[in-house]
Predict the structure.
Amino acid sequence: MNPKTPGPSDDSCGIAQAAAVVGDWWSLLVLREIARGHVRFDALARELGVSRKILSDRLTALTDRGVLARRPYQERPSRHEYVLTEQGRGLLPVLVALQDWADRWLLGDGSLTGLAEEQGAEARRVHALVGTVLPHGIALPATDGPPRDPLAPGRPTVLFAYPATGIPGSAPGQPVVADPIPGNAGCTLENRLFRGAWPRFHTSGIAVHGVSTQNPPAQAAFAHAEGLPFPLLSDARMDLTAALRLPVFRAGQEVRIKRLLLVCDADRTIRHALFPVTDIPAAVETALRTAHALTNTSTPGP
C-alpha cells in the first residue's frame, strides 16, 4: 500500500489523514522554507538543496491539497510564487512543535527549560539570523491598534521576545510560587526595564516591540496595567516563530518563545541577535547601544 494513502481503517484518524498530506520529509521542509519567506522555486531549490523534480512534485501535491496557493509575480514569461493558504498557516504550530520536540529530545538532554546552551543548536540557529531579512507579509495583533508588521517602517526596531507575563489582577491573595521552569521568570521585569529605557530609545528614533505567544487580551491587560509606551505583539498563531525558527518551550499546555533580542535596521535586516538572555538589564542596554549605532538621528521618531 502507498504509505501516503491512509487505508480504510484510518478514515477517522486525523493523524493518518494529516500524514497523507504532509508526512513526507521534503513536504515538511518545503513548508518550513515557505514560512521563512522563500516562496519562489529557485529560492526553495537553493535553500533545500533538492532536485527540481522532487521540489516540483512536492509543490504540486501541496497545492493540490490546498496547503499552498500559486501567486503570479511575473507575466512574461509566466512565473508564480508559492504562499501558504489559511489551511497551510494552520500547520505552522505543527512545524514549531516538531522543532521544539527535536530541540529538547534530539539536540538537547530532554530537560524542560526556557534557557539554552550558549553554543547549542538553538543559539546557533538564532545567531544565524544575523544578516537575513525578516519576511514581509507577517501581521501580528498589537496592543496599540490593529495587527501590524513586527518591525516599524523606516527606522531600526528592537524586537524582544519573552515567554509570558502574568495577568494583572488574577488570583488575588494567592501566594507567589517560584516558577519551576528555568528561564521562564523575569518577563515583567524585562518589560519594565524596556519601559524605563524607552525615552532613550524614542529620542534616538528606535522602535521597541515586545512579542510573545500570549493571546491579545492577556497582553492588552498587562500593557494597560504597566503603562507600556510600546506595543506588545501576539504570535499566538506562530507566524513569526515559524518564519524565524525561534526557540520555544512548552509550559503546561502553552508554547512559549525563549527570551531573545533581535535588532533590525530600517531595511528589515537583522543586524544583531542576543540569545540566550541571562542578564536582562545588560541585554536592554546592549539593544539600545546596538540599535543606536544603526541611526544617525538624535530627534524623536514618529
